Structure formats: C-alpha cells, structure tokens
Amino acid sequence: MNVSTSAITRIEGRAVVLRGSDIDTDRIMPARFLRAITFSGIEAHLFADDRAAAQAAGALHPLDGPGAAGATILLTQANFGCGSSREHAPQALLRWGFRAVVAESFSPIFAGNALTIGLVCVTASPHTIAEAMRIAEASPDNAFCVDLEHLHLGCGSTRSPVSLPESQRHAWLTGQWDATSLLLADYDDVERVEARLPYLRTTSRNA
Amino acid sequence: MAGTLFEKVWNAHAVRLLPNGQTQLYVGLHLVHEVTSPQAFDMLGARGWPVRAPHRTFATMDHIVPTAAQARPFQDVMAEAMAGALERNCRTHGIPMFDLSGGAQGIVHVIGPELGLTQPGMTIACGDSHTSTHGAFGALAFGIGTSQVRDVLASQCVAMSPLQVRQIRIDGALPPGVFAKDVILAVIRRLGINGGHGFAYEYAGSTIAGMSMDERMTICNMSIEGGALMGYCNPDDTTVAYLRGRRFVPGGDDFDVAAAGWRALASDADATYADVVEFDAATMAPTVTWGTHPGQSIAVDERLPRPADMPDAERAGVEDALTFMHLTAGRPIAGQKVDVAFIGSCTNGRLSDLREAARVARGQKVAAHVRALVVPGSQQVRWAAEAEGLDQIFEDAGFEWRRAGCSMCLAMNPDRLSGDELCASSSNRNFKGRQGSPTGRTLLMSPAMVAAAALAGEVVDIRRVLHPGVSS
Ligand code: SF4
C-alpha cells in the first residue's frame, strides 16, 4: 500500500472502542509477527494475542465486534502505543483501515511514527472519550468525524474539542506530513552543520 | 549563555526550522538492526534514493539471532531471510556491518558504546526505543520508527520537535544490594510510565556521578519506560576514561582535544530546567515489578497492592494486572515461585551485570524447577566474561551460558517463555506477551536478584543473600 502525501482535513466513519490505558506496541503487534521483511499483510496480526484471548474466553474483541469492519476511527484511553518503537504497530492499524486514533494521550514514538505514515492521532479529555465510547457502543453504526480544521470530534449534532500539536495539525492540513522531501531540500544547510561537528572529522577515518 | 547539555547538542545539530513547524535535526550516528530496517531500505529503493552518509550508519543483528547455536543459515527461515536482507542492504549501500563472524556483534545498544561509536555530543538515532541507552555518554540518543530510518538513510536527518529537560537528581549512597536497575525502577514508579512525555531526562546528583558507565547505561536505557524519549548523563572523568582507547574513538592528541570538547558539553551549573525532581539513594530498595508495565513495581519486602486501596483511575488497571500475573493482592512478592530466570538484554547484559550475577551464583545451584539463562549482550562481553571464568561459575551452578543477542527480552528468536511461565528477568519490559507466550509473565529486577531467584526458585531479597542474618 502506498499512502501519498496529501492534505488531510477530516476523517469520517464508524469507530471501534478499545478500553484501557497503557496499551503497548507489544500488544498491538506481538513481536513474533515482526519476523518479516515487509509490512505487507501485517494487519492480519493486529492485537493477535488479545483477540485470541477474548475468543478463548467466549467474548468478542472490539476489533471482531459488530460494525468493526470498515471502521476508520479508533477510540482508546491514556498512553496509547507505549513501549517498543516498532512502526509495525501503526502500520497495522493503518492497513487494517483506521485513519485516526482518538486517545487521552499517546506515547511520543508512536505518535511520531503515526505522523510519518499518515495515521492521524488526536487527544481528547477523559470525559469526551468516555462519552464518545458510550455513543459508539450504543450503536456501532453511529458515524463520527475527526475534524482537524475545527479541532473537534463530532457525532450527530454533538461536537467535542480534540487537540494535537500545532506543528502536526499544520502538517496534516498542508499535506506536509511526510517529511522526507523537506529533509532533502536545500542540502547546503546540512553540509554547514556537518562542517561544524568536531566528531565528524575525527571518527570517520577509523571506519 | 548558560545551557543544558540538551540545548548545546540540539543547537549544534539543528539544521533549520521546517515549514511543518518541526526542526530538521542532523543525526551524527545511525545504528540499524535487522527488524526495523528492511522496510526502510525498500522504501528508499522504491524512491530511487541513495544512502546519503553510509559511513555514519552501522549495522548489527541482535533481535532474531538464536543464542544457542549460531550457524548459518539459521534454522528459522524467517530469521534467515531477515539476516540476509540486512546483509544485502548493507552490501548494496556500503554500510559497515558487525556480523556474527566478526567478533563485534551484539545488541546494538551494547556494541555502540563498547566500540566507541557512541560519543558525547552526538545525536544518535536507531529504529529501537532503547536507543536512549547511549545518552549515558552525554549524547542525544532516541528511538525512531521505520519511516524515520528511511529519512535518516536518505538525508542523515530527522524531523522532530525539541523536548523540555527535566533534571532527575539522585543523591547519596545506594544501600548494599541496590543497583542501577532499582534506581530507574524507583524513578519510573514515582514519575509514572508516561511522566516523561515531552521531556528528556537529565540524570544528575552524587549517586549518578559515582556510577560506572555500565550503570549509567542501565538508567538511561529505561528512560523510555518512563515515557521519556531520551535520558542522558553529563560527560565527566568516568565517561572520558571509558572511551579512551576504544576502536572508533580518536587516539593520541586528538583524544585530548575531543575529551576537552566533551567535558564542555556538560550542563552549566546555572542552566535552567523545566523542572527538577529529587531522589534520595539511601531510601531505595531492591525492586521487583509485579504487573504488566514497568511502573507497577514494589520494593522486594513490600506487599502487593490492593485494588481497593487504589485511586479510582488506577483500580481497574491494577486488578487486570494482578489477574494476568496470577498474583494475590496484599500478599508479599518475596517467596513467589519462579519458573525461568533470564540474565541479559541491553539493560543488564554487560560485563559488570554478569559479574554481579556470578557473585551470587558462585558455588550455588539453580533450583531444580528453574530454567536459567545467561546471555551476554555482545560477543566482546562474552569473551571478557569467559576470560575471567564467569561462564564456568554459571555453568557449574546450572545456568545455560549462551551467545550474544536479545534472547528472551522479546519473542523474536527461539528463547521464549511457554504457557504461563513466570520469569525473573533482568530485561526492561514486562508487557503481556513480551517474552513470547501470550500468557507468559515477567518480573523485572536487577541481575543479582535474578540470580538469587534462580537459586532459590522464588523471589528473594538480595540483601539477605549478600548479608545473611540482617533482617529487613
Ligand atoms: S535487548 Fe530487548 S530491549 Fe534491548 S534491543 Fe534487544 S529486544 Fe530491544
């Protein structure tokens, strides 16, 4: 899959409710599924252990629940994506079909990875999240909207504030979230930095 | 102007402010391993971009390598494919690689410092969250994702936003039986696993000043477990002495010039911090995690928390963790039976860690029901340990003596838990499923405590082992 860099102003669709805080990337994507050299097909293993555990207990994991297929928004709680830096975690969420994650807070590496690949992360208050979760669970068909222009999470006629760092918002709205081309522009500036770093003169000769 | 090390190193590497509001930061040292790099090389290839500075990237393999026997091809075809992809990518792009046959292979965060690649004042990036380890040298070292690995390969830069600096002052003498691992677990317990969001942690104070580089690395390593992308210590005599004579460190007069530059990077006495948090080393105790994240820990002589006593916001999490761990609220953690003991990882797989564990294991026997593994963090650690006979001490006691790799820290190689085994582990993460079995359970502790648990077959207070007869 190739996500092109284009402006993202709003994400609409159904939401999956994933209750719990401190959901780490080992849970989102258990390490044994990292034994691969591409990201292709990795979404099949999203939350593999949690889903199997739910099934064994005769329950349904939210990702296997009614209305989950085709959902674009993930609602969850605090410190989402903590732990390992594996980009396999946001890649799997994106490839599964999510376009935005709304949480009380995110681990910084997860949020950084998500930004680079085009998965929108916005935060909201515990109250807003709880209310949105209630609505989504009441009827999985309820449609939500994450609006990056007006910074709100909408459902029906309700609007609740969401936030994200201004630099990220700017990046989404202008389509500049894939930073590689920015980093390669005007390379003279990089060479000026290289010229002033003492260790670049003394260490490279041993390599 | 007075500044922190963070500000000095950040400013030296800042290329410019990007239109998206982030800073373009030059990466002085880029480390890659086999798990998070193949997709990055593919993305580079798809765009037809060369690697901008192949001499500033170094590769090794650590996560997937088996530690029992390392003959190629690996038995696991996926592991072999990953190793092969890394070798191919390094060859294609002219990137130096420390492979299994060269004598310098090991966990990426162990070999960087050991080879002298890691130096004060650098920006260091690696597709691995424990890159924070290298901050022990006074570097800004941080983990990145695979798309950022691609960015560094293509441009030798990353786009990121500056962090605030929190100074963590630890003063006083650590009581016997209390190690660097206990210090960082105490910091995470107090500040929380997300307390470090938005911060770099600067570790300072007399306790840190008195620590070896190995100990400082253990502390900086787990900064990420406290939510801080980076942790660092200011360079001092200990840093300079460690680096002298290492393979990638300048020699002769160049060394003295470099060392003077390193010392000048230390935070100025009147630098300002976003905040300062103080700890008293004398009050610290051997610590054990009981839950499913590294913030859920207690001193080994404390009792497990009772959900009923917890604040509302934490109650459900504590209940869930106790249930997963099959532990009973209010009971002591000491005396808890363990099935597996693992000594190793980038947190505690260096020579000094193995020495501490061997001191406990010498002349003793691992309990009959315990499977115990010692896995050196690098080939150099392994040979240095063998040169002083540590392998013999471990094997005589009934520990398996392995080859270098990440091993049972995570489940990407044959070393893993099965079923709901409980593992006393010197690694850094006790997440559900982390050690390879979805129901496997992990208790994090210092290497000496793991060794003691292996011998007793249950969690024990290391202070009683080191000083029998002293009541706690
Ligand atoms: S030892 Fe563990 S934490 Fe360290 S790099 Fe290897 S897998 Fe990651």
Describe this structure in words.
The complex is a heterodimer of chains A (207) and B (472). Chain A is an alpha/beta fold and 207 residues long. In chain A, 35% of the residues lie in helices and 15% in strands. Chain A has a seven-stranded mixed beta sheet. The mean pLDDT of chain A is 92. Chain B is of the alpha/beta class. Chain B folds into two domains: 5-275, Aconitase, domain 3 (2-Layer Sandwich), CATH 3.30.499; 289-466, Aconitase, domain 3 (2-Layer Sandwich), CATH 3.30.499. Chain B is 34% helix and 17% strand. Chain B has 17 helices and 19 strands. Classes of the chains: A alpha/beta (207), B alpha/beta (472). At the A-B interface, α2, α3, α4, α6 and α7 of A face β1, α2, α3, α5 and β8 of B. The structure holds iron/sulfur cluster. Iron/sulfur cluster binds at residues 62-63, 107, 109, 128, 130, 345-346, 406, 409-410, 427-428 of chain B.
Secondary structural class of chain B: alpha/beta
**What is the molecular shape of chain A?**
globular
Low-confidence stretches of chain A: none
Poorly predicted segments of chain B: none
Count every helix of chain A, treating DSSP H or I runs of 4 or more residues as helices: 9
CATH superfamily of the largest domain in chain A: Aconitase, domain 4
Strand order of the largest sheet of chain B: 5-4-3-6-7
Beta-strand segment tally of chain B:
19
